[in-house]
Write a structure and sequence with these properties.
Strand 2 (65-71) and strand 3 (74-82) form a beta hairpin. This protein has helices spanning 15-30, 36-39, 44-57, 109-117, 133-141, 165-173, and strands at residues 6-9, 65-71, 74-82, 93-100, 124-129, 145-153, 156-163. The radius of gyration is 16 Å and the shape is globular. The chain has six helices and seven strands, in the order E-H-H-H-E-E-E-H-E-H-E-E-H. The chain has a seven-stranded mixed sheet, sandwiched between helices. Helix 1 packs across helix 3. Keywords: Acyltransferase, Transferase.
Length: 174
């Protein structure tokens, strides 16, 4: 078995590779869920490059944690967490991005990326597409539980999952 990918903080020099990974992951994961016009938009990758440049350089995002997973010099996954946007949040962190290329699922990249952007005891929430059974199962294995909140963003139904110290303990005992 190969060792897990290396995970490290993202750098501005990673932006193009990060954008390419996100676009590829979206195409692998969301085909049939997100409109093809979005996934096949010729400007999709350029928009992701602009987003990641801002995420890594703009002072507004200084409290975010951004990490990449690499294997053999290739970026194979990306994660980002930051302060919650919900003013009434009971969690201290929100996981905004966690994507790993399908060819690297099961390599340890996902758990390593999660650990790189969220502290173990930190209360955290995320939104995940529904249906997306693989991602939801991954998050459940890492102590997240659906809290009943649902939203539709850009035509995609999402459920909120949260991990609190209490939820994490109960998910391990079950």
């Amino acid at each position: 078995m190969r060792p897990p990918p290396t995970v490290r903080p993202a750098r501005v020099g990673d932006v193009a590779r990060m954008a390419a990974v996100i676009v590829r992951c979206w195409r692998e994961t969301y085909r049939g869920v997100v409109p093809d016009a979005v996934l096949d938009d010729p400007g999709f990758e350029a928009a992701r490059r602009r987003f990641w440049t801002a995420a890594l350089t703009d002072e507004r995002y200084r409290a975010n944690r951004v990490a990449v997973a690499e294997r053999d010099g290739e970026v194979v996954g990306v994660a980002m967490s930051g302060p919650p946007l919900d003013a009434g949040a009971t969690w201290t962190r929100q996981l905004y991005v966690l994507y790993v290329l399908a060819a690297h699922h099961g390599t340890g990249a996902g758990p390593a990326l999660l650990a790189a952007v969220v502290e173990p005891g930190e209360p955290v929430a995320l939104w995940v597409a529904d249906p997306n059974p693989r991602a939801q199962a991954f998050y459940r294995r890492h102590g997240f539980v659906a809290d009943g909140a649902v939203q539709v963003e850009d035509g995609v139904r999402e459920i909120r999952m949260v991990r609190t110290p209490a939820a994490r303990a109960s998910s391990r005992s079950g």
